[in-house]
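Interim report, section 4.2 (structural modelling).
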Amino acid sequence: MLVSPSLLSADFCNLSKDIDMINESEADYLHLDIMDGVFVPNISFGFPVIKNLKNICNKPLDVHLMIVEPQKFIKEVKDCGAEFMNVHYEACLHLHRVVQQIKEAGMKVGVTLNPATPVSVLEDIITELDLVLIMSVNPGFGGQKFIQNSVKKVRQLRKMIDNSGSHALIEVDGGVNGETGKLLKEAGADMVVAGNYVFKADSPLDRISELKNL
Ligand code: DX5
Ligand code: ZN
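Predicted structure of the assembly:
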């Protein structure tokens, strides 16, 4: 399983300590949650913070934009050194255009689905995507309870991807722990985000390793 710990649950007074831990860990990516207080009812951190973190982080960045009109910030995300730029399906009126623009900017593109959005909305664009991010909580906050229906969505998406020949990875975000991670693995997920399960643990390194070996 690919693992992308979410910085949202890190200690914001000691970010460099937490980045050191991530650098040492078996994590594959660092997940960064950008919020605008409009698309979601919360505000997190923005591009200046991420740009600085990139200088000390040796893992590729998995950037999750919970903002309206994400196409306005493609250059900023690219300048942060992001590997994946994830935009919400619900935030893009012209999703096909946004997907092309992200690819033209030289990043891998992910499309994120809220819990109430069915995976079927991606049928006509799935072969264009590098990743689909299934939200297993309503976006905006760390530490929420996993929505069980997400397992079914992963199963449906696995089928869609395999039948279409798409190379898209399936990532799941929200309420992931050892138990829910196992269910997601069985359903066909490739990658999990984990905030609280990693950063609020006595041994974050062990938690990352546990998810890695699911
Ligand atoms: C929620 C964010 C998540 C969050 C996950 O809106 O997208 O990435 O940090 O946190 P946990 O793993 O604690 O649910
Ligand atoms: Zn996220």
